Sequence to fold (254 residues):
Amino acid sequence: MTKDSKSPSRVRVVDLETAGTGVMDVCEIGWQDVEQAEDGQWQIAEQRGALFVNPGRPISADTMAVHHILDDWVANAPYWRNIAGSVLRPGDEVLTLAAHRAAFEQRYCSPRFTGGAAWICTWKCAMRLWPELPRFSNQMLRYQRRPEGLVHELGLPAHRALPDAYVTAHHLRDMLNAVPMSQLLAWSSEPGLLPRVPSGPDRGRPWSALDDRALESLVRDRDESLRFSALTEIQRRHGQPGPAPETPRQGSFL
Fold:
């Protein structure tokens, strides 16, 4: 495998901690780059870092209990709108961004800040590459897979931006060395393909074990990944599109 000079030589993995759901409520960003070596293999790069961000609002006790970031730490930090671009658009070599459950980061890392960079979602790609695993959270993948070279202490504490980005980067490195980036981008552009039914009376069962009536019910679920997974099984089984899934008012898959 040789390096394609037209392809990005680095992917920037990012992770955000937030003080709320507003688009400027970021209170920390961490990043860890993954780079392509001359032999075409992907590896963890030296470029990593973290910055506190002033969310412009107090951080609630409930939120501090998750990431342990204090108001005093962010009081003199720059606002998200002033710092985002410098991290998300560091240079021509980084044309792709990545995150675990990237939809969350994309709520805050809008094209205004990313320059329209493509995104890889390592959660969606993990379910495609390692469907036999029982769970797919960032930390569960860490301990189920034990990626080579991951320094335990650098991945701690969990739920802080740089340690979480560092862990995600090891999953991404292994994904990039298994399949082309174009495949990861394609998977990331679709809803998640769940390996098994995640909830309800059929929880834990493979999609192939469900009857047609159960599948037709699930393609109208509120969660887009659940709908997509049920519809994919219908298409596999019958060789034609199943019932058109309805658009939900709000997604809810956890």
Notes: The longest strand covers residues 26-36. Confidence is low (pLDDT under 50) at residues 1-5, 242-254. DSSP finds eleven helices and five strands in the chain. The two ends are 37 Å apart (CA to CA).
